[in-house]
């Protein structure tokens, strides 16, 4: 076998094994998207109930609470970046990091210091490689987030929010994550978590509607104290679930195009290998014919 | 009798139970509270304990709920807890 042909055969073999891997990853992701989407859907009643309750307290009571009032000057802002633990998911982690960089640029332009909280190994690696500081990192389990980890993140964030900016606390918290729009689209999303900005599901009371008089048990301030950490947890958990669903969708898409590319490579190299084989045979035939001719002319 | 209560018991990762009921009893931080149809809007912090839901037929559904809150609005009762499960 000629050298040329051997090289092509090697390349075909390598493309085939790569394709086996990418194909398997594609199938795994495809089956996990369903589950991740179901988890997003299952957690919706909870976050909807909490959002309703929070907007009720915010609308119908006039308690001054540290979590709802906007501080006069914001010195430090926190950015929480939700990336993935593993790569091979296309632009999944890079697009969320790019969005975070843009946000950080914007916040610095407003004269705020930026502190980073990182979720997922990819964001951590990105910061380590650039030797940049982060406040805290969480890795592991980004593809199947647990409520406990959301609670842990929520506690840390709340704690640093309640601290003064001088002591290393923050006055503002932003979340950056990939929102699951559909199987083919996942867009990076920036949400301001604190101070509170209840955006979704708030029904503006219509003129003439009588606002219900809410009763708080034990009292409005205690209810707020209890409710807002829960609200933060649920927002973070929701972001993690969305991010997980997006990760699977992004990986499936990336792996699908990788498998398609491998297919194309295999076809191309097979053609080339056939060509090489043909020309090898042709060469051998002409060598034999040439040799036979030479022998025949030598005899006569 | 007024329209029955619409009750949903939700935990962080799924809806535990939902349906119509005539009465809901839950334990708040202040003590047990019973809710019948037509209750005024209310928000309360839940203490750890049992939530008892009486169905229109008289059957009862028991659930464990801890670390959450109870909201009542327009005959819509929501028991929201980070951990909740039927007993």
UniProtKB/TrEMBL annotation, chain A:
**Record carries keyword Hydrolase:** yes
Q: State the compartments where it is located.
A: Cell membrane; Membrane
Q: Which Pfam families match?
A: ATP-synt
Superkingdom to which the source organism belongs:
Bacteria
Q: What is its main location?
A: membrane
InterPro entries the UniProt entry points to: ATP_synth_F1_ATPase_gsu, ATP_synth_F1_gsu
GO BP term, pick one: proton motive force-driven plasma membrane ATP synthesis
Q: Give GO terms: molecular function aspect only.
A: ATP binding; hydrolase activity; proton-transporting ATP synthase activity, rotational mechanism
**Gene3D superfamilies under this entry?**
3.40.1380.10, ATP synthase, gamma subunit, helix hairpin domain (1.10.287.80)
Q: Report membrane topology.
A: Peripheral membrane protein
Mind listing the UniProt keywords for this protein, alphabetically?
Answer: ATP synthesis, Cell membrane, CF(1), Hydrogen ion transport, Hydrolase, Ion transport, Membrane, Transport
Query: Which GO CC annotations does the UniProt entry carry?
Result: plasma membrane; proton-transporting ATP synthase complex
Q: What role does this protein play?
A: Produces ATP from ADP in the presence of a proton gradient across the membrane. The gamma chain is believed to be important in regulating ATPase activity and the flow of protons through the CF(0) complex.
| Quaternary structure and partners | F-type ATPases have 2 components, CF(1) - the catalytic core - and CF(0) - the membrane proton channel. CF(1) has five subunits: alpha(3), beta(3), gamma(1), delta(1), epsilon(1). CF(0) has three main subunits: a, b and c.
* Family per similarity comment: Belongs to the ATPase gamma chain family.
Q: What is this protein called?
A: ATP synthase gamma chain
State the organism named in the record. Answer: Cryobacterium tepidiphilum
The gene name on file is atpG
TrEMBL record, chain B:
What keywords are annotated for this sequence in UniProt?
A: ATP synthesis, CF(1), Hydrolase, Ion transport, Membrane, Transport
Q: What is its EC number?
A: 3.6.3.14
GO terms, molecular function: hydrolase activity; proton-transporting ATP synthase activity, rotational mechanism
Q: What is its main location?
A: membrane
This protein is called F0F1 ATP synthase subunit epsilon
What is the similarity comment for this entry?
A: Belongs to the ATPase epsilon chain family.
Q: Where is the ATP synthase F1 complex delta/epsilon subunit N-terminal domain?
A: 5-84
Q: How does it assemble?
A: F-type ATPases have 2 components, CF(1) - the catalytic core - and CF(0) - the membrane proton channel. CF(1) has five subunits: alpha(3), beta(3), gamma(1), delta(1), epsilon(1). CF(0) has three main subunits: a, b and c.
Which CDD domains is this protein grouped with? F1-ATPase_delta (cd12152)
Q: Enzyme class, one word?
A: hydrolase
Membrane topology of the entry: Peripheral membrane protein
**Protein source organism:** Cryobacterium tepidiphilum
Q: Name one GO cellular component term.
A: plasma membrane
**Localization, UniProt:** Cell membrane
Q: Which InterPro entries match?
A: ATP_synth_F1_dsu/esu, ATP_synth_F1_dsu/esu_N, ATPsynth_dsu/esu_N
């Amino acid at each position: 076998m000629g050298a040329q042909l051997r090289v092509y055969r090697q390349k075909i073999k390598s493309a085939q094994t790569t394709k086996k891997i990418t194909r398997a990853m594609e199938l795994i992701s495809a089956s996990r998207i369903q589950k991740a989407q179901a988890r997003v859907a299952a957690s919706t009643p909870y976050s909807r109930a909490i959002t309703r309750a929070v907007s009720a307290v915010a609308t119908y009571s006039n308690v001054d609470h540290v979590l709802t009032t906007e501080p006069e000057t914001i010195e430090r802002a926190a950015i929480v970046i939700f990336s993935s633990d593993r790569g091979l998911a296309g632009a999944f982690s890079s697009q969320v990091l790019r969005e975070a960089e843009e946000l950080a640029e914007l916040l610095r332009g407003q004269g705020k210091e930026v502190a980073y909280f990182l979720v997922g190994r990819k964001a951590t690696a990105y910061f380590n490689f650039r030797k940049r500081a982060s406040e805290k990192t969480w890795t592991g389990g980004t593809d199947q987030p647990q409520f406990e980890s959301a609670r842990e993140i929520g506690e840390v964030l709340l704690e640093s929010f309640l601290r003064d900016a001088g002591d290393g606390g923050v006055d503002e918290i932003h979340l950056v994550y990939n929102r699951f729009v559909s199987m083919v689209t996942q867009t990076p999303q920036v949400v301001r978590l604190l101070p509170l900005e209840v955006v979704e599901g708030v029904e503006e009371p219509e003129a003439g509607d009588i606002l219900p008089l809410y009763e708080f048990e034990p009292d409005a301030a205690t209810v707020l104290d209890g409710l807002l950490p829960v609200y933060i947890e649920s927002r973070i958990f929701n972001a993690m679930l969305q991010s997980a669903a997006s990760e699977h969708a992004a990986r499936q898409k990336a792996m699908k195009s990788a498998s398609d590319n491998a297919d194309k490579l295999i076809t191309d190299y097979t053609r080339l290998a056939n060509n090489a084989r043909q020309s090898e045979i042709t060469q051998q035939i002409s060598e034999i014919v040439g040799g036979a001719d030479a022998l025949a002319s030598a005899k006569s | 009798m007024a329209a029955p209560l619409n009750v949903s018991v939700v935990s962080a990762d799924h809806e535990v139970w939902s349906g119509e009921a005539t009465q809901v009893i839950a334990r708040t931080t202040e003590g047990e509270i019973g809710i019948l149809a037509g209750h005024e809007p209310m928000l309360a912090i839940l203490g750890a304990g049992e939530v008892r839901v009486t169905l229109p037929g008289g059957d009862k559904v028991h659930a464990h709920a801890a670390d959450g809150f109870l909201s009542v609005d327009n005959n819509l009762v929501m028991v929201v807890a980070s951990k909740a499960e039927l007993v």
